């Protein structure tokens, strides 16, 4: 197929922006659809882009003293309910494991939509006094959210991500850590990906469930 023929098979951005995006990521072989609705296969070129982003962010995270850890994929329902205020927004999207082989489990297991509850439980067990602070942990993992409307890379049932969870002696230290990482995320978007973003704080009705406040970096697709 000639370059002209290849380009002609890509929908015009002006005609249909959503279809143009899908055509680009599939025809560039960044991603392919899988047999499970809403999930995707990240192909070699697409995964290399992810590796470049991940490696650069991981370097910056480690420079600020964070350590990488890995939490389990499954969360007991009883543990999840202890932090129900924090997972309120994810509750309708939680995927549940009810059987192990042919045997029904005594307690349902949540396939992690995020790992706050696991980090909180772990910190409770390892932090005994202020001498153990700060704790700066980072995790690279996959998470699952049973989305109704999906699009490759932007919104899928399973996706790769990074999440940092830290504990500090004072509220001010926690705020400073959050603002430092906000700058790191914005810098990654602008300096590595050439995507201009706006840093800010979410409105009260938009903040993460259970949070005092939520910081964000935002961009607009036009």
Automatic annotation (TrEMBL):
Keywords, sorted A to Z: Aminoacyl-tRNA synthetase, ATP-binding, Ligase, Nucleotide-binding, Protein biosynthesis
Keyword ATP-binding: yes
Domain Aminoacyl-transfer RNA synthetases class-II family profile residue range list: 37-222
One GO molecular-function entry: catalytic activity, acting on a protein
Catalytic reactions of this protein: tRNA(Pro) + L-proline + ATP = L-prolyl-tRNA(Pro) + AMP + diphosphate
Keyword Transcription regulation in annotation: no
Enzyme class, spelled out: ligase
Database matches in PROSITE patterns: AA_TRNA_LIGASE_II
GO annotation terms (biological process): prolyl-tRNA aminoacylation
InterPro entries: aa-tRNA-synt_IIb (IPR002314), aa-tRNA-synth_II (IPR006195), aa-tRNA-synth_II/BPL/LPL (IPR045864), Pro-tRNA-ligase_IIa (IPR002316), Pro-tRNA-ligase_IIa_arc-type (IPR004499)
A cellular component annotation (GO) from this entry: cytoplasm
EC assignment: 6.1.1.15
PANTHER family, per database record: BIFUNCTIONAL GLUTAMATE_PROLINE--TRNA LIGASE, PROLYL-TRNA SYNTHETASE
Entry protein name: Proline--tRNA ligase
């Amino acid at each position: 197929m000639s370059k002209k023929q290849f380009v002609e098979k890509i929908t015009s951005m002006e005609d249909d922006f959503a279809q143009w995006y899908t055509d680009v990521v599939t025809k560039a072989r960044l991603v392919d659809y899988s047999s499970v609705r809403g999930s995707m296969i990240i192909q070699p070129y697409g995964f290399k882009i992810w590796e470049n982003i991940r490696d650069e962010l991981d370097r910056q995270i480690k420079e600020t003293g964070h350590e990488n850890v890995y939490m389990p994929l499954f969360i007991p329902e009883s543990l999840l309910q202890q932090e129900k205020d924090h997972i309120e927004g994810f509750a309708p999207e939680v995927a549940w494991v009810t059987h192990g082989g042919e045997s029904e489990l005594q307690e349902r297991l949540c396939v992690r939509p995020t790992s706050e509850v696991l980090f909180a439980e772990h910190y409770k067990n390892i932090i005994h006094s202020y001498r153990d602070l700060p704790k700066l942990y980072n995790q690279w993992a996959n998470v699952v959210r049973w989305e109704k409307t999906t699009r490759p890379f932007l919104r899928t049932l399973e996706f790769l991500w990074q999440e940092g969870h830290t504990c500090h002696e004072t509220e001010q230290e926690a705020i400073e850590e959050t603002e430092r990482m906000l700058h790191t995320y914005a810098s990654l978007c602008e300096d590595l990906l050439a995507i201009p973003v706006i840093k800010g704080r979410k409105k009260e009705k938009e903040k993460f469930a259970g949070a005092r406040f939520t910081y964000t970096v935002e961009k607009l697709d036009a």
